[in-house]
Design brief:
Elements (H helix, E strand, L loop, with lengths): L1 H41 L13 E9 L2 E10 L2 E11 L9 H8 L11 H17 L5
Antiparallel strand pairs: 1-2, 2-3
Amino acid sequence: MRRRQTLTLVILAIVVVIAYFGIKTVNSYIETIKANMEQLTATPLSNIDVSELADGVYAGSHHVFPITAEVNVTIQNRRISSIELVKHIHSRGSQAEAIIDKVIEAQSLDVDAISGATYSSMVILRAIEDALRNATWPD
């Protein structure tokens, strides 16, 4: 009987230690994600003049865990004629995809994020920014 009690206490102690370190790891993970998201929104986007870019299709991507976006931006007659969202991994940020229409309409990255999907909006904007940075300057 005493042996059974000792074994139960040892198992209970092991469970408590595992739970403690598990919670600590999860909290660290959450803090890292929060810091990444704060940095995403705090860093300003580049002011790229689309009218100075050569026509073509340019790929761009951006990833801030847990969000990823890949885009193809088509420049035609020195304007953004279309943006194809090739990949968008998000949790609840699918409404952020509406930001593409805002960018095309404004011909600029200087648009407001979609309310309720700020982080996904910013990741998509950063992917578009990456594509525009990959665009060539006309001769």
